[in-house]
């Protein structure tokens, strides 16, 4: 699965319905409950969408070996996003897309996160906030892993700037930016 362009991140059911009716290829589920996940993924798969979930934000799910087994074998997600190396490693081991979420809080956090990424070797890194071009470029150069920019992206200029800085894609829950 190649991720590029604008990736819709779903928080509300109204937005989920918009994605189902769109030409967008991917769906990222953020805040949801484990009891809803199977049904939502089935609906998205019926609409030929590829499914990524932020595993750390699924209420009721413990993302250990058994939680990942459930997501992969039962729910049939195509990939996961997580801040945790163990989740990224389990995704890689099970041949689904592994995206490591990295928060650029300060220089020390950035340095430590780059070390962790080099250990876990994710398929993609999601850098938050996604509006700091120099950080996007720094992480891309330091890790040689494709970058997804996310968080605080509010307009087309910020999307363009993130992509010009080395991001291959951006994530946003702002549905007004999905079709740009």
TrEMBL record:
Record function comment: Regulates expression of the glpD operon. In the presence of glycerol 3-phosphate (G3P) causes antitermination of transcription of glpD at the inverted repeat of the leader region to enhance its transcription. Binds and stabilizes glpD leader mRNA.
SUPFAM superfamilies, A to Z: GlpP-like (SSF110391)
InterPro entries tied to this protein: Aldolase_TIM, GlpP
Name the UniProt record assigns to this protein: Glycerol uptake operon antiterminator regulatory protein
Source superkingdom: Bacteria
Listed PANTHER family: GLYCEROL UPTAKE OPERON ANTITERMINATOR REGULATORY PROTEIN
RNA-binding found in the keyword field: yes
Source species of the chain: Gracilibacillus marinus
Keywords: Glycerol metabolism, RNA-binding, Transcription, Transcription regulation
């Amino acid at each position: 699965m190649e991720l590029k362009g604008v990736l819709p991140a779903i928080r509300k059911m109204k937005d989920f319905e918009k994605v189902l009716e769109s030409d967008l290829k991917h769906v990222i589920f953020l805040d949801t409950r484990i009891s809803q996940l199977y049904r939502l993924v089935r609906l998205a798969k019926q609409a030929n969408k590829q499914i990524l979930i932020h595993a750390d934000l699924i209420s009721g799910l413990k993302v250990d070996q058994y939680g990942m087994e459930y997501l992969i074998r039962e729910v049939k997600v195509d990939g996961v996003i997580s801040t945790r190396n163990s989740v990224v490693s389990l995704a890689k081991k099970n041949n689904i897309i592994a995206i490591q979420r990295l928060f650029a809080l300060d220089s020390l956090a950035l340095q430590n996160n780059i070390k962790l990424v080099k250990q876990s070797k994710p398929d993609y890194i999601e850098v938050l906030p996604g509006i700091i071009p120099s950080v996007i470029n720094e992480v891309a150069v330091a890790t040689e892993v494709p970058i997804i920019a996310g968080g605080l992206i509010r307009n087309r200029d910020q999307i363009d700037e993130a992509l010009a800085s080395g991001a291959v894609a951006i994530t946003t829950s702002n549905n007004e930016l999905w079709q740009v």
